[in-house]
Amino acid sequence: MKDKVCLIEGNVEVSYSELWGNIEKLAKAFLKIGIKENDKVAIILPNCKEFIYSFYALARINAISIPLNQSLTSCELKNIFNDCKSKALITTRDLYETKILPIFNNIIITIDECNEPKTKIYNFKELFKLAQTGRLPGFKSNNGQVATINYTYRGLGKPLGAMLTHGNYHYGAIAYVRLTELMTRHKVLLITPMFHIFTLISCVIVSLLRGATIVIMKSFIPSHVFRTIKEHKIDFIIAVPTVYISLLRNYDRKRYDVTSLKYGITGGSYMPVYIHEKIKKEMGIELFQGYGLTETVPVTCNPRSWNKPESLGIPGRNMKVEIVNEKGKIVSCGTKGEIVIGGPSVMKGYYNRISENKRFIRNGWFYTGDYGWKDKDGYVYFGGLKKDIIKVGGNNVDLNEVREVLNSFPGAKEARLNIVEDELWGHKIHAEIVVSSEKEITEKEIKAFCSKRIALYKIPKKILIGMN
Description:
This protein is of the alpha/beta class. The chain is built from 13 helices and 27 strands. It folds into three domains: 5-140, Rossmann fold; 163-385, Rossmann fold, CATH 3.40.50; 389-467, ANL, C-terminal domain (GMP Synthetase, Chain A, domain 3). It is globular, with a radius of gyration of 22 Å. The mean pLDDT is 93.
């Protein structure tokens, strides 16, 4: 087992013994540069083996990881840094130089060499040298200890840091192992970003727990994905609906061989049944819909023994899912209400957010802000969003945050958002904004203004401008 390949990234293969060896070295180096138990460390990386090393090395010393989306702007990242007060940050040289340099003054770690003259900057090569001497002390952790702070949105116009414990990850991973039936011999294709809780648990943690092999893709180009599936004989794929729909649109039976694929898991947003059917008919891939939130980790998934593509699946072991009315009372099967989640998968709470914790966690149940219902077999169904959130390519977009940015444009009087359903992306945002200005304002100017403040996927695709 120790010599089995666990990670493949391009032409590089990493065995299980190398993986755990690198994690131990990195954990030792983190201690030597001043990162200690319960310190918070942000990780802003693309999909790469160094993300996995960092995540597990921080867990090894009971430090707290903060996985962040590399698509976020400097403005968004600064707000998060101010909230969580992270002691260190792990990133690439390019991201450091283009986004992070002016907004972060603590310990910087880059996975590649960085020429920035700063006393608190290290690269992985230096860290592995530091780890050549000394021993790594033992650390004890418990299920209630915070492992990560994962930032997400609830439609409040600001990000909230969900504190996930070691127990959340443990129970979430075990439940998904049982539901997905992932085997040791499987090769798993990692496409979606690792910072996302869906990818982190279902694709990274579960795969390593089962002794599978993860093939890491740094970017999503359909032709490259098809080539990788054939080259590595991928068994198992985990991705958001946008990825599957894009693959379907680019699939050519005569050019691409995907016969090695056994099945796939889809999550991050709801996939319509007709897309399931088209993918199965044209590509021969059976997809199993799952469901969960950042605050609860993946909770449900369709089992291979009885797949109901129109549903979100059944709860995993120890997971509790109920449907409640406006008074918080559990409703009968088939009755629509709000989905609430209980059990060991529910987060410890939002970081430094007492009022939000009281609002969204009641009597041990997490109120998701999603509508749904259950059938007599216990399968959960998605019935729309209660919260002021939409999904764009599997990413949460807080509509109040977008409105606030548009309304902060100089001369803006009022901004209205129109949400358009889109097969590929899930949703698109169109906006109307009234401005008072002596000169004509263009859509390009407003989008440029937005691009400095919010990530690209949050910016309205079309902006109509009215003058007042």
